[in-house]
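Run log, item B.
One chain of 440 residues. Sequence copied directly from the ordering sheet:
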Amino acid sequence: MREKDLDERVAIVGVGAVTPAGNSAQATWEGFTHSNRSFITAMSVGRDNFHSMQLAGKVKDFDPYKYAGGKQLKRSDRYAQFAVAASVEAMLASGRLRMVTKPNRTTAAVYELIDIDPFRIGVDMGIAVGGSSAIDQGREDIMLKGPDRISPNTISLLNPSKAASDPALIIGALGGAMTHNSACVSGVSGIIELYKKIVRGDLDMGVGGGTESPLHPLAFYAFQKMGVLVSYEKFKDSPEEAVKSLDVDGEGFAMGEGVGVLALERYSLAVKRKARILGEIVGPAYFCDPRDVLDPTEKNVEILVEMILENSGLEPYEVDHHNLHAGASTGDGTELRGSRRVYKYQTEYISFHGPKSRIGHLMGGAGGAESVILVYAVATDTDPPTANLKNPREAGFYVPRRTGRRLIRAGIKTALGLDGQYGGFGVVKPAPRYLNYAAA
């Protein structure tokens, strides 16, 4: 792998997450590695004549008042509350943020940045849907109560920019708050855009990732009409077995909600302050082929993996782990076969992971949450298992079915989205001379 000047490199100094597997990054990682269970459950959607039961990855027992309080949450939809929680977690873990006043329902949170100019910190957050709950509630208020009864906070609640601006407000980041929409690649796009700003010198640090809370009737019924959701009727007695990523019997995905973010910092600054470095972002790449409206192609997956390797300087034999998009459908085979065009016979030694069988498809939050899992895998030399895998879709691939420990020098994240969106990057361990400051 090519060595770059430290000022041109980007360190991962913190992670944050809220997912169906747990309400923090650590809890999510433990949910992925301490058992082989899936967190897909049944939930009620809609009401009256439009009521149905669906399968989904739902976040449970989430308390937004652990991270913000008082009027800070008055104009925040659930997806924005997720983003605040994960961003605060990642920044606290980075050592660049401390809590001054603990929040509750009446008291606002007060945080303080540590030894960094607030104009040198930014937030880049991906989101694919936005405030769908506010849209549903607004429509219902108009239909049942009349247009004069709609909440004056509706525009703020449904505005996708809150995914980035709310975390920026809470942590005190003044270097820009941008929301990115590239379908299911949105979470990866948030990380890549932040990476670019740090490398260009626009920022010294920031929070990047993706968030989403789409578990509302419109999204469910629209995806159901497309025929891509797994059947509730078939798996109503065993919802945890419904989603089967990388399995020949995979019949579709379950929608999910959640967030995942990475706190990124200019490598030279992280080393100077002896920060706890979890890994390094390398080789970010994305492109769009609008001809692939619904399904990815093997050729474009091959191009994406080649771009990541070329941009990072990694050789195929240096990659030990690959976190896949893997939506539990025929597209899983496409992603595997496209990757094999690059890795060749080494697919038997690279561990491949399909995270959506465990937490569902988090839409704009998927790339962020799955990137957190990738960072943990590289930092702890741990292969997380793919849940519900019994009959692998493709032969000749190493897909762990139970948690395993081995050296992971570098890992890759690939994300695929509607309308031909492709994106990904690599995560490598810190250089040996900086391992004193790295995560164990």
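Observations after the first pass:
- Residues 435-440 have pLDDT under 50 and may be disordered.
- The longest helix spans residues 78-94.
Flagged for discussion on Thursday.
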